Amino acid sequence: MKLTAKARYAVTALADIAAFGDDGPVALSDIAARQVISATFLEQLFAKLRKAGLVESRRGANGGYVLTAAPTQIRVSDIVRAVDEPIRTTACQPGEHIGCAGTTARCLTHDLWDELGRHIDVFLSSVTLADITGKKVLGRAMVGEPVEALEVAK
């Protein structure tokens, strides 16, 4: 399982605006230079981000992009969904009657991977751009007590 480049770059680009956009619109060329992302690729992503209502463009000599909400209000999950990149942890297609193995049955580990997907979604929904720029992401995934090692029967 891997987060797509579209999703990673979209989150990175909006975090860049959150970090550097206090003085006004941020140009895509500046984001591209700071984050080492193709400006052409950013243009494609920002069309989707604009359509989703996460950013607005400003024209003119000092033009660029601004966030439409405070960084505390924009969740990573919103950004990932805006670029049409769902994070899939199972092989079966949502809403289809075909199971993981190409039959109507689910594979033996389907529930494990499905639950992992839910945890990823909950985690990404809990992290905002402000958390990223404020370096408050580490430790968020720690839930409950550590699991003790189990003895395995031989």
Automatic annotation (TrEMBL):
Mind naming one GO cellular-component term on file for this protein? cytosol
Q: Does the keyword DNA-binding apply?
A: yes
Q: Which GO terms describe its molecular function?
A: DNA binding; DNA-binding transcription factor activity
UniProt-listed PANTHER family: HTH-TYPE TRANSCRIPTIONAL REGULATOR ISCR, WINGED HELIX-TURN-HELIX TRANSCRIPTIONAL REGULATOR, RRF2 FAMILY
Organism lineage reads as: Bacteria, Pseudomonadati, Pseudomonadota, Alphaproteobacteria, Parvularculales
Its recorded name reads Rrf2 family transcriptional regulator
Pfam families tied to this protein: Rrf2
What species does this protein belong to?
Aquisalinus flavus
Highest taxon in the source lineage: Bacteria
SUPFAM superfamilies named among the record's database cross-references: Winged helix' DNA-binding domain (SSF46785)
* Annotated keywords: DNA-binding
Gene3D superfamilies from the entry?
A: Winged helix-like DNA-binding domain superfamily/Winged helix DNA-binding domain (1.10.10.10)
